[in-house]
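[job 4471] stage=fold_predict status=RUNNING
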Amino acid sequence: MINQKKLEESIVLITSASEKKANVIGTGFAFHREQNYTYLLTCAHVVEDVGGKENVRINNNNDIPAEVVAIGNIHGFDLAVLKVKDILSLPLLELMILSEEKEINYHINIPGNYLYTNKITEFKPITGIISQRSKVIQFQEKVVVWELKIEKGKLQGGYSGAPVVDLKTGFVVGVTTHMEGQNEEKGKVGRAISIEALEKIWSDIPPTISQQLKRKSYTLTKLLVKDSNFNNISPASFPDLDFSSISLETIQKAYQDSLSPDAEVWDLEVNNLPQILENLHQFRKITQFLKHLIQGSDIPLEIRNQLQEELKKLAPKNSLRENTNKSEKLDSYILATLIPDQNEYFFLNAWLIIDDSVKDISKFQYLLDFNEKQQGILCNSTQISQEFNNFLKKALKYLRGKRYSLTIEFFLPSNLMCEEVDKWKISDPVAEEITLGIKYPIRLRSLERLNLDYLDDYLPQWYEYWDKVKYFLPKKPTLELFEHLSEMESFNWKLLKIKLEKKIGLKVTRAHPQSIRKDLFKAILLATTPIAIWLRNDLPSLNQETFIDEILTFQPLSNLCKTVKNMREEADANTQIDKHLSFHLAILWENPYRLPPDIMLELMAPEQ
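[job 4471] inference complete, writing structure tokens
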């Protein structure tokens, strides 16, 4: 379902700076934002029609130039990406690739600009349906071309570049390229290129946009069958069900009725079907949803009866699963990335994994607001802990009512690996304020390992080393498994890298100077070392090496971070903060099978 106000506000008018092209216009729309730049999508031929890249102007006042950052061939992938500065109020439209099922027609909305006379520009949304028409070829790659059949209104000159928006989901599925038809039928038919062409013309496409393009459309049947609660059902179990006859109001009511009392966690006003089903899938509420959906007044009797039969088959299995889940403690994680920006600012982003035993991408819950899913929240060094506290509070709402063990993993650049993130203050309903590392186990991760070039070269080796670690996780490790670094004056990173390749981890029993930090983590990255423990500061009055050795061998390796957390809690109770070595410890824990969702998507094979 479309938010019409947001849709209209996202549309821009494209004109020319050239007086010779005064009557040439096109349409574009906002879909991405980075810092103070907004990215727009239009057609490649619109850029050509207004007189080329240097003549593109936005919003008909000729003082907002646009930079063309990517452009396709007007006879092939007819798309262009524009970048404009400081137009930050435009709502961003989201993208989705439609299923290529030729027998399905999708109801769509096309908001575009046209010339009412030679001088008056007007905006008007038109509606219709699209169906697959053909495929266009460029550079040996093929992209779907959609046929547009306009039912209300008509296409006119200026609609080129207008988004083709799926009425049910509100997502952009294509870009209008051509008006067709003769005489009275002129403008009643046309064509649009699938949004999938964007990734093929834009080599530097941001991961967040690439992730949207990997989101395929599904019929309601497919999305229900996809849920793990229904993994014993094949799509053939729903042979002829037409869910398009169910109103969005009925679907929303069933969605809201299926929620638990902590409903403020859920987006009750969500009005696109994929997001509703994604939420239900994440929290294992599909069964409850179906039970309420069956009660809808506009559910066809045939669909009602067939769904009731399937629910009867699932009842014993779901009952067993629910009883099992109540007794098991979930292994939960918050993954947070801190990416440096210019002028001492950072982008902070975070995701929640409610149940790490789930193996697919659906296990991730975004903690950044849905309409802000870019690199993260821009903040300075003094604001980071407060912004993370906001992420944490949102995560705890998602975990409400569940039995869980929560671990926090921070992906930091190498030069920030000695930041005292475990000393950040977080809010607490009883103590008002508490230290993060006292309440939760904290692990550090290398931001550099998320670089796709690094993963291309080193991921197989990283997998191999982590598989060795898994053997020792349930055991108390021996000290021989860890390379020991204590001499900083004679530090040789190349030699350290060679030694690390024979170990599963590194222990550093003296605080290392900042001058060698880059080379220290270079050795760790090249050796793909999974585990490291080091001191941020020295406490000369204590035997630091003995202390770290005792921590490493005290309990099974899997409990290492919890052991440090418990030591910090005891030291805090005895008011020994900063006098206890546990508050000066940092632990690197690199599991290559647990990475942020945008990276996981990049690593997935197409069929996944």
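[job 4471] summary: The chain has a mean pLDDT of 83.
[job 4471] exit 0
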